[in-house]
Design a protein that fits this description.
It holds the Pfam family AhpC-TSA. This protein has five helices and ten strands. It is of the alpha+beta class and 188 residues long. A hairpin with a 5-residue loop joins strand 2 and strand 3.
């Protein structure tokens, strides 16, 4: 398991569009996911210890952000070949068991993760109402274990600011997580 950190925020970069199947049986696009005040695009998976440590906080924060007009979507881009826990069926089961309040989509070709420049799970991309990037940072100071419940909610506070002003904070701390499990390119 390779641990990586996300790059700094490329302010005002446009959100790449997508058409991806969700565990709910629907195909979702960027516009269908967007909220009135913004969109949080999260690259997560089922097996990553970093995601497992904070999934309850992700659910809490996305529910609270939805009330502020910021919707969320989770995308799973790992190659499930070596990680059966990340299979589409297991994605559906996890989403149902935890009651995800956001669409959970599979990026089988990994093209969406590449278009966004996602590098790890979890990887958070926070967009304003115009779908311009304003946040590329961590959820909070959790790592493989959840941090103290009273730590600053970096992602929530940043996206609340985006909902209120359209702009994210200048100072952002990178997210940390497991590397995305890329498919091996066939050699010729």
């Amino acid at each position: 398991m390779v641990s990586l950190q996300t790059p700094i925020c490329d302010f005002d970069a446009e959100a790449p569009d997508f058409q991806l199947p969700g565990v709910d049986g629907k195909t979702w696009s960027l516009q269908q996911c967007a909220g009135e005040k913004g969109l949080l695009v999260m690259f997560i998976c089922n097996h990553c210890p970093y995601v497992k440590a904070v999934i309850d906080r992700i659910i809490r924060d996305t529910k609270e952000l939805a009330a502020l007009g910021v919707n969320a979507v989770a995308i799973m881009s790992n190659d499930p070949t070596d990680y059966a826990e990340d299979s589409f069926e297991n994605m559906r089961l996890v989403s149902e068991r935890l009651g995800f309040p956001f669409p959970y989509l599979i990026d089988e070709t990994q093209q969406v993760a590449k278009a966004y420049g996602a590098v790890c799970t979890p990887d958070f991309f926070g967009y304003n109402a115009d779908l311009k990037l304003q946040y590329r940072g961590r959820l909070d100071e959790s790592k493989k274990e959840a941090a103290d419940p009273n730590v600053r909610r970096d992602l929530f506070e940043a996206m609340k600011q985006v909902a209120e002003s359209g702009r994210g904070p200048q100072d952002q701390i990178p997210s940390m997580g497991c590397s995305i499990k890329w498919r091996e390119e066939p050699t010729s």
